[in-house]
Amino acid sequence: MDNYQYSIAELAQMMDVTTRTIRYYEELGLIAPERKGSVRLYNEGDRVRLKLILRGRRLGFSLQEIEEMLSLYDADPTEVKQLQEVIRRGDQKIKEIEDQIKDLQAVHGELIELRAKLNKTLQEKWKGESSK
After folding, report:
1. Stated pTM of the model
2. CATH class of the domain comprising 1-61
């Protein structure tokens, strides 16, 4: 299967993305399929790169960050530098997410408290209206 070449439609269906998304990543230089005329042919390496790009996006990395990490992969066949960098950036992303969770929990608590106060005020107003 290493020599298999995928059409853009096959790759898009396999990765559950649009062909436009794949062409966009190609425009950015993140993937570089072989071309036969106007037909793009993607090899196994392109498929793996696309999978890594999509995983990186899903995890919240920017396309620039993904490009930087992929360039490490290209420069170091042992993948050691890339793995170290992905771990470092992943740790940063975890910290960012933990901070966001704390912020969201604080907002959640404030909204719950506000709702309780508003419900109490509403009940007092109903009580006042029904006693008239």
Report:
1. 0.73
2. mainly alpha
